[in-house]
Amino acid sequence: MNNKTYNAFETAQKQFDRAADLLELDQATRDLLRNPLREFHFSIPIRMDDGSMKVFKGFRVQHNDARGPAKGGIRFHPQETIDTVRALSMWMKWKTAVADIPLGGGKGGVICDPHNLSLTEQECICRGWARQISKNVGSHSDVPAPDVMTNAQHMLWILDEFETIKGAKDPGFITGKPVGMGGSLGRKEATGYGVMITVREALKVLNINPENTTASIQGFGNVAQFAIELFQQMGGTVKCVSCWDQEDHTSYSYKKENGINLKELLSITDSFGGINQTKAKQLGFEILPGDAWLEQDVDILVPAALENQITAENVEKISDQVKIIAEGANGPTTPEADKVLDKKGIFIIPDFLANAGGVTCSYFEQVQSNMNYFWTKDEVLGKLDVKMTAAFIAVNDFAKSNNLNMRDAAYVISVDRVAQACKDRGWV
Prior knowledge:
Layout: H1 8-23, H2 27-34, E1 38-47, E2 53-64, E3 70-76, H3 82-98, E4 105-110, H4 119-133, E5 142-146, H5 152-166, H6 187-205, E6 214-218, H7 222-233, E7 237-244, E8 251-255, H8 262-266, H9 277-282, E9 286-289, E10 300-303, E11 324-326, H10 335-344, E12 347-349, H11 351-354, H12 356-371, H13 377-401, H14 406-425
Parallel strand pairs: 3-4, 3-5, 6-7, 6-10, 10-11, 11-12
Antiparallel strand pairs: 1-2, 2-4, 7-8, 8-9
Helix pairs in contact: 1-3, 1-14, 3-14, 4-5, 6-7, 6-12, 6-13, 12-13, 13-14
C-alpha cells in the first residue's frame, strides 16, 4: 500500500455514508450496514519445514448475508489487516448486490507471504484456516474463494479439510476450485474479462471505437492478464503494465510504446504475476518506476493490483488523454482522488461493478457444484457477458436519470438493494 496510515475500512465507510445520505437511510439501517454482522479472528499454528513452530493470524469477516450466503475471497498477504478484510467484505456486499446475484458479502485472509513458504507450509495454513472456521462457514452460510496470492490449489486443500471435518462432500462450499474437481470453466478469465466487458460498454457510451484505444494497467496477476487478453481481442493496445519484480520485490512499470505482446510477457512471469526484469530488458521493454503506469498518455487506466493506488498525492499525474478508469482492483481510488477525477470528467467504472465478473462466475460455479451439472466454457462466458452488460447498463442509466456519477449510482443501487433485504427480513 502507498500510505501506511491508509485505512481501507474508513474509505469503505465514507463511500457508504455518501450513498446512505443520498438514500436518506434511517439511523438503524446505517448502523447495521456500516459495520460487519460478525467477524472471526484466530491463530493458525503451523509446523514449518525446518521443524520449528510458527503461528499465523487468520481472519474471516461476514459483513452481511441478508440477500444470501456471505461470499468473498481469502487472501494471503504479509500486510493483511483486519480493517482491510472488513473493507473488502463490505465492498463484496455491494458487488453481489450491484450484479444482482443472491449472495452477501464476506472476506478472509491470513497474514503470510507465500513467496517465502513451501507448498507443504501453504497447505498446512490452508487446512489450519479451515479447521479454525469450519463451524461458521458452508455452502448455505459463507462461501470462500481465491483472492490475492491464493489459487485453485489452496481452495482444494481448504475444501478437502472442510469435507473431512464435516464427513460429507460439499463442493459448493468453496469456489475457484480446479476444473474437474468442481471448478467452473471460464472462472480464471471471469474477473479480467468482466473488467473489459464494462470497458466495452463504456466505450459505447462515449462513442469510441475500441480499436483506436490504448491502455495502461497496474498489476499483472490473473485479473490483469485476462483483461489484457480480451482488450487485445477487442482491438485495443496495452502500452504499459506495472507489477513486482521477481528478484528484488520492488514495483516497476514495463512499457512498449507500440504495444505489449501478452504471450511474450507471460513467458517471463512467475505464478504470482511477477515479471523478471532482466529478461524484460532483453525483450526490449522500457523499465520505469512502479507508479509510472499512472502517468501514461493512454485512453484507459486499469488499476488491477491493490487498494489505495490513486490518491490525492498522485491523481494530478494522470494524463489529460485518459477517458476511462476501470477499477479491476478493490478500492484502488481514495475518496479525495475521486473528487478530482470527477472534475476532470473521467468516466469511472467503480471497482464493485468493474470487477464483479469474478464473483458472478463464482456464483455460477456454486450453482453448478450444488446441482452437480457443469456448463461449457462458452456457456459460462456467455452468461457472464449478459450479467455484466446488464449491470453496467442499469448503473449507467440510473446515473444519467439521477444526474449522478457512476460510483454514486452503483452505490445507491447496491445499498438500496441490501437495505431493502434487511427491512424485508425485519432486521431494521
